Every structure is written in C-alpha cells, then in structure tokens.
Amino acid sequence: MIRFLFRFIGLLALALAFIFLVYDGTKSIADQRLYVTKVAEVWATVHETSLPQVRPTLEGLAPWLWDPVGTNVLNAPICLVLVIIGTILLLLGRKRRPLIGYARR
Fold first, then answer.
1. Is 99 a residue whose pLDDT tops 80?
2. Rounded distance, CA 86 to CA 80, Å?
3. Is residue 103 pLDDT above 70, yes or no?
4. What pLDDT, on the 0 to 100 scale, is given for residue 105?
5. Taking the model in full, what pTM does it have?
C-alpha cells in the first residue's frame, strides 16, 4: 500500500514538473526572454504565510540547513526540484525484482 502511495505521489510530482516546464517554456517563447519559476515563487503563491516560518524552523534544527541547503532549494527551478522528488519517490515505490538462481534463499 505504501509503495502504491509513493509511486502515485512520484508520478504526480513528475506530471507537475512537466506542467511547470511547459508553462515556463510558453512564457519564455511569448516574451522572448528566459523565464524560470522558482520554488519560493510557487510556495508564496500556494501558502504565503508559511514561507517566513521555514527559516526559524530550519535554523532551530541545524544552522547549516538554512544557509546553504534551504536557500539553494528555494532558488532552484520548480521543475527540477519536482523531477528529483518524483524520481526518488518512484524509486522508493518500485517493486522488488524476483531473485533468480543462487541468490534466492
């Protein structure tokens, strides 16, 4: 059951990544400039009040989590982050291969 959930959310993340890629591409073609939607922009659009609360939370856990990790993730393109998350979830949710030969016990 949990593998199904991982695969479902992973496929959803990959579909959203493709949607954002098409959105950025059409916006870039229409304006003849390169547009890249960042994670912070999407997060602020979805839930604006939770974005400022992330910094104290991450600094409370470990100070290095905010400065190099958190800021880089928030400034990364949303399609890249969603592809990475989707791929990890799909790999976690894949079915195990049946063992063949002497490896089976």
1. no
2. 10
3. no
4. 57
5. 0.84
- The per-residue pLDDT for range 1-22, each reduced to its tens digit, is 899 999 999 999 999 999 999 9
Radius of gyration of the chain (CA): 18
State which H helix or E strand residue 45 sits in.
helix 39-46
Does residue 104 have a pLDDT over 70? no
Cα 45–Cα 47–Cα 50 angle in degrees, nearest 5: 130
**Domain count for the chain:** 1
Contacts of 65 (CB under 8 A, 6+ apart): 58, 59
Helix locations, 47-93, DSSP H: 51-61, 63-64, 71-74, 78-93
75 domain-assigned: yes
User: Is residue 16 one of the residues assigned to a domain?
Assistant: yes
CA neighbor of 94 nearest in space, from 7, 12, 13, 14: 7
Which residues are bridge partners to 8 per DSSP? none
- Domain of 17 in residue numbering reads as 2-93
User: From its phi and psi, is residue 37 left (phi > 0), alpha (psi between -120 and 50) or beta?
Assistant: beta
